[in-house]
Every structure is written in C-alpha cells, then in structure tokens.
C-alpha cells in the first residue's frame, strides 16, 4: 500500500494541525516532494546524519521526527553544519522529512497525554489550554434547511464544547432581501422585496477548521448568496494546550513516584525538589521543556509536576509543598513515537514502520 506524500501529510495534519504549533516553531514538512510515493516510515525524536543513513539503509522514504530538522532558517546548503549535511543527504536519497513538534505537544492526546498515561494517571486533561484558537460561526438559514446545515457544520468539526458535541444555539427570525437582475433566488421574485422565515445558527469551532466549516456551509446552504459571520474568541480551547494533569489511582509517596519514573524512563537519577516524605495524588506533566508551567500546575492543585530541562532558579521558585521532578527532555518525549506508530499503522496497515535504533539523545548519565 502506498500514498503520495501529499495525501499522507494531509491525513496527518487533520489529526495534528500545524495551526496548533507555537509561534517560534517549524512543525510540518521539512523536506519532500508532495507527489512522491510513501510506503515506509522511520520514527525518531531527532534527525541526525546517522538517522538519515539508517533510513536509506532500510529503504524508508519518509522520516517522521518530533524535533524539527530545520528549526531556524537556512541561508545555504553547503555542508557547513549538521543540519545542512542532513538536508543534502536526505534530498540526494529521496527521503522526505516531516516533524510534529509543538503541534504534537499541544493536541490534547499528544506528547504530554501519553506521558501521563505511562505514569499511570487517570482523568487526564490539558493543563494549560490554548487561548485565541476558537472562533464562532454565525449563519442564517431558511427553516426548512436548518437541520441540514447544522449536520454539515457538525460533520466539519464545529459544535464541540468540552466533552459535549453537536452544540449550537438557534434563534428564529425573519430574513429580508431583494434579488437583483441575473440572480436565482431560493424564494421570492427578482426585483421584489421578500421576507423569509429563518433560523440563526451559532456554533463554536477551532479556528483552524474555519475553512472546512465554511466549505460545508456553502455546500449545505440553499441560498445563492448566503450571510455568515466568523468571530474570533478569547475563550480557552480545552481541546489543545500545553501539558497534562491527572490523578493517580492510589496515592504514592514521593519516593515511590520517583522510583516509578526511573523505571519508566530508564535513567539512573532524577533531579527533584520537595519533601520526599510527602504523598502524591494529583500529578501534572509536560513533555520537553515545561518549567514555565510549574506555577500553572500548582494553581491546578497538582501535588507533583514532572517535565525536563528544569533550571536551578525554577527549582528555587517552585512551591515547597509540591514535588518538581526533571526526567530529561528526551525521556519525557520519546513515548510520543508510539502514538505516531499506532496512528499510522491503523490508517496505513501495509506501511513498513520502524523505530529508529539510533541513540539521538545527546545526554548521558554516569
């Protein structure tokens, strides 16, 4: 089974929208011909020269990484840096590279969610929901077509509020118009005033789905010229954001939790602050560098916060009654590759999928 790179990326980006990435990021397709065929994928946290060579050796024509190969703009590809050499090698070998970075961090079921699951948390939710990522669509529909339009909007992704779906607000009123020359009005006559009983439909949607929802509206709406508004919202989008928070099935002492983390990550030592004799029930996590969420975790009622790349001053400023643990950047993100593997295997069961055998984590423990 094969797909074009364009077909594959469109499918992947419906699940992990690039619009959810942070402003500084470069998630998405790094290298590749959208018309080229794809049937074998190598999964890795980082792209290095060894990883590109591994993909070439195993005839993988697509590398999917968590961290982008091209993070800052390249002015030349002349072999002067590791990134330049990787780009040149991948292009020469016909290997595409796609990176799902902070877009994958921010989907509710992504990097932090699987880390929370691995730790054993339940009732997992987003720790710091995104803001400014929601819009409201308002349209006006003849009463006879209101149900059809609602269904079209729901199918396109509108109408989700928390754990509820198919949400809308509907008000009955009268719409007025006069059709001009050359038009074909749904009701009424050209050149005459017309009043039509209508329903005003409001539905919330993720902003990145606005184009799809408008296309669905156009296809379902009976009017030749329809009226609609899209309004940006400042509401929190609980379907996406940084970190995750959940509950342990049974309380653990700090020592027991640290032992669980060491076993899970395979690292021999964990840097932490807080009282080792305390008991922990509510735990917040953030894959990668999440120390800026320490106060957010505390406000959310977390007894512990687990992430990577914690600096000295972040430890000193953390609440004294909360465990703060650094399990490493790579270690906190590596489980996300399992998610990608399962997603791709389900959609493209005949794809050849491999986890990279190259150790890309530059940090060692002694």
Tell me the span between the first and last alpha carbons.
45 Å
| Helical run tally | 12
Strand content: 25-35%
Instruction: Compute the number of strand runs.
Output: 17
Structural class: alpha/beta
Question: What is the helix content?
Answer: 25-40%
Radius of gyration from the alpha-carbon trace, in angstroms: 25 Å
Outline the low-pLDDT stretches: none
Order of helices and strands: EHEEEHEHEHHEEHEEHEEHEEHEHEHHE
Mean pLDDT: 96
Could you write a compact summary of the structure shown?
With 366 residues, the protein is of the alpha/beta class. The chain has twelve helices and 17 strands.
Polypeptide structure, described:
- Helix content is 30%, strand content 31%.
- It is of the alpha/beta class and 366 residues long.
- The strands form four sheets. It has a six-stranded mixed beta sheet with strand order 7-12-14-15-16-13. A five-stranded mixed beta sheet has the order 2-6-5-4-17, with helices on both faces. It has a four-stranded antiparallel beta sheet with strand order 9-10-8-11, with helices on one face.
- Strand 5, helix 3 and strand 6 form a beta-alpha-beta unit.
- The chain is globular, with a radius of gyration of 25 Å.
- The two termini are 45 Å apart.
- The relative contact order is 0.15.
């Amino acid at each position: 089974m094969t797909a074009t790179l364009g077909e594959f990326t469109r499918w992947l980006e419906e699940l992990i929208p690039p619009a959810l990435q942070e402003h500084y990021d470069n998630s998405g397709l790094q290298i590749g011909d959208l018309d080229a065929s794809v049937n074998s994928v190598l999964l890795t946290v980082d792209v290095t020269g060894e990883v590109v060579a591994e993909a070439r050796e195993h005839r993988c024509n697509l590398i999917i990484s968590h961290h982008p190969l091209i993070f800052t703009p390249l002015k030349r590809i002349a072999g002067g840096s590791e990134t330049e050499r990787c780009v040149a090698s991948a292009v020469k070998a016909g290997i595409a590279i796609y990176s799902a970075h902070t877009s994958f961090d921010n989907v509710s079921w992504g990097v932090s969610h699987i880390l929370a699951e691995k730790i054993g948390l339940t009732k997992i939710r987003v720790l710091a929901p995104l803001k400014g990522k929601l819009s409201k669509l308002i349209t006006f529909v003849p009463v006879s077509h209101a149900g059809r339009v609602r269904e079209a909007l729901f199918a396109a992704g509108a109408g989700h509020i928390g754990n509820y779906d198919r949400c809308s607000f509907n008000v009955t009123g009268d719409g007025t118009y006069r059709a001009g020359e050359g038009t074909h009005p749904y009701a009424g006559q050209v050149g005459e005033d017309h009043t039509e009983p209508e329903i005003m439909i409001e539905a919330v949607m993720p902003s990145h789905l606005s184009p799809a929802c408008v296309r669905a509206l156009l296809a379902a709406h009976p009017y030749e010229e329809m009226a609609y508004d899209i309004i940006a919202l400042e509401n929190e989008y609980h379907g996406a954001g940084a970190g995750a928070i959940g509950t342990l099935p049974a309380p653990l002492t700090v020592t027991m939790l640290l032992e669980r983390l060491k076993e899970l990550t395979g690292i021999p030592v964990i840097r932490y602050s807080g009282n080792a004799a305390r008991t922990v029930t509510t735990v917040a996590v953030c894959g990668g560098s999440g120390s800026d969420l320490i106060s957010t975790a505390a406000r959310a009622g977390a007894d512990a916060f687990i992430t990577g790349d914690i600096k000295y001053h972040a430890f000193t400023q953390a609440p004294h009654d909360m465990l703060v643990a650094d399990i490493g950047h790579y270690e906190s993100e590596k489980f996300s590759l399992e998610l990608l593997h399962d997603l791709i295997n389900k959609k493209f069961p005949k794809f050849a999928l491999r986890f990279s055998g190259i150790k890309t984590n530059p940090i060692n423990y002694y």
